[in-house]
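Sat 14:20. Reprocessing the chain from the morning session after the first attempt stalled halfway. Input below, unchanged.
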Amino acid sequence: LDPARMAIVIVVAPEPPTNETFTRVFADVLGRPAAIRVPAVAIKLMFGEMGQALLLQGPPVMPRRLVEAGYSFRFPELRGALEHVLGRRPDLPLRRAGANAELDLG
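Finished this time. Tokens:
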């Protein structure tokens, strides 16, 4: 590997969900209702701009460098990832990327 082409990347899902989407999909995968909702106004009052940005809109990060490098996400959507991690997708073994995982990010 060319050290000049190596970089640190933030690994996030290609489509990071909002808190509402995560809660709904998580409850659905567990087969349980997502009965308790916190009104957006309460989140804004309690957490201000940070709550608005992180909990209501989702984190403002995208895996741009990974996508540009052609990285293939095993679970590009939340449902598939949660089903797998929670044992609802036993057809696929859980892979763990080591600290030395390499990807040429040009």
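The CA atoms of residues 12 and 63 lie 6 Å apart.
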